[in-house]
């Protein structure tokens, strides 16, 4: 069976956009407005001839309990089922309290994590991406899910941790 990659992170960081970029088609639903309830969805992808299953964790219920706990709960189920995790952070906003919350969950889960610093649309964003070293998850990989910048390098790193 194809290894499973869970794509986690808070709403609006570009998880679904990244998945569409990897798939090469618009299949995951991209939301301009955060907070729309959605189930976890799996997609079959491939990189360098290796099959991968990508799990989008867009599911999020804005009414329930408070944002941080809900996002973590969603992400946690996907992470439990995954062989590795892509943690997507918005490099243009820097790490938020919610990002830190997800980091703690990821530490407990103990799965290999690759940190994607998204929305680095040009080289000016690289500096902001480097600030994500502070999350303590190792090297932040700058990508622009929207334009494709850095995504091939990210995928190379991902298949290496599998
Ligand atoms: P998700 O909630 O994490 O799945 O985020 P989405 O994929 O739905 O994207 C949220 C918003 O961020 C959308 O308006 C996207 O177009 C935008 N976005 C996603 N990736 C990028 C990127 O690499 N650069 C920029 N500038 N915007 C992005
Ligand atoms: Mg989404």
UniProtKB/TrEMBL annotation:
It comes from the Bacteria. Residues 3-162 form the EngA-type G domain. GTP 1 binds at residues 9-16, 56-60, 118-121. Keywords: GTP-binding, Nucleotide-binding, Repeat, Ribosome biogenesis. The keyword Nucleotide-binding applies. Associates with the 50S ribosomal subunit. GTPase that plays an essential role in the late steps of ribosome biogenesis. Belongs to the TRAFAC class TrmE-Era-EngA-EngB-Septin-like GTPase superfamily. EngA (Der) GTPase family. This is GTPase Der. It comes from Brevibacterium pityocampae. The chain holds residues 83 to 244 of 521 of the full protein.
